[in-house]
Amino acid sequence: MSDETIHHGLDGVIVDTTAISKVMPEINSLVYRGYPVQELAEHCRFEEVAWLIWNGELPSAAQLAEFQKSERSQRDISKDLLAVIHKTPRTAHPMDALRTAVSFLGMEDAELEKKHDAATNLKRSVAMLAKIPTMVAAFYRFRKGQEFIPPRKDIGFAENFFHMVFGKVPASEVVKAFDVSLVLYAEHGFNASTFTTRVITSSLSDIYSAVVGGIGSLKGPLHGGANEAVMHLLLEVGEPSRAKDWMLTALREKRVVMGFGHRVYKNGDSRVPTMTKYMRQMADFTGNKKWLEISDILAATMIEQKNIHPNLDFPSGPAYYMMGFDIDMFTPFFVMARITGWTAHIMEQQANNRLIRPLSKYTGAGERRVVKLEQRK
Ligand code: COA
Predict the structure, then answer these.
(1) What pLDDT, in 10s, does the model give residues 247-271?
(2) Any bridge partners for residue 310, and if so which?
(3) Does ligand 1 come within 6 angstroms of the Cβ of 185?
């Protein structure tokens, strides 16, 4: 191939095929295995969507029951892994703590070097889905000096996470808003972290290494880290009366405003209306409308001034904040959801693998001769 065009940031490049999800910016839509994500968020629990992403179809009631039984039975983490989490510096970012915990989980897999087949990797994917919330919650409580709360096996995925973090399951409105966020975060084409997992998989590395790489990529504020940055931004604005001026100043100073813009969607993120609806419900539920009012003014000003629309992180950040979570825990929630999409892509990459190895155009020094150390000035 002799095309010398440089696609900076791989912008507009189609790297491979996928049957998992389709992002359709022209009609502002996203489908997982053909189903619009908005419909999935309204009608399905996250566990159903996880099954769909992995298996290509929505589960029957019997399949869902079996899957939930399996996921619930695997929520415990080993004593050694819990000890690793409890040795993590309390000041560490939760994404770094999670990256290390998933890496350790991989080393606990005795068959890791022997088995890479799809059936084994699907089992590993379900195990990661079940255990990652336990890791996240364990670190959450550890750094606050609180006792570890073991997972419950008799409640759903979202409910159990609240139980492990706060020791209780909140009202169904709060659980639903959290569950919806998981559905919306589950999968999104060849985004940076998913592509990272595929690149790692393409060298025939293992599924845990790929997920660890995905966590590293997701942490960045241009990707998953934006949901945390959005909440810091809202706190900086502080009051609805300051919101418009804050945005105008940010734009005048050419600041990148977190939670706005998207590489693929240029006329709005398909997931935003659904998450905004549930963010509004959180504001109603808590009786605190401040973050909603600030968000509305910021979004209206950005659209009016630059026609740049909010992305999913814009409503999810304040929604998580209103649920009572610490801000730096927001990106790990994204991992709890995206583990489904990442692992589906890892298995898809394995099924039709070709080493991902792009070219670069060299712009460094011209060829020159090495001068021996004693002769160098
Ligand atoms: N705040 C201010 N300006 C923004 C912006 C934002 N959040 N997002 C895009 N723009 C501006 C760019 O500066 C650029 O302006 P220019 O033409 O004057 O240079 C223009 O909009 C086009 O954007 P572009 O740089 O082509 O977007 P991209 O595809 O490279 O970037 C993001 C996409 C997501 C990296 C970018 O929008 C961004 O940094 N957003 C904030 C982080 C975020 O919320 N990430 C989560 C994504 S889901």
Answers:
(1) 999 999 999 999 999 988 888 999 9
(2) 260
(3) no
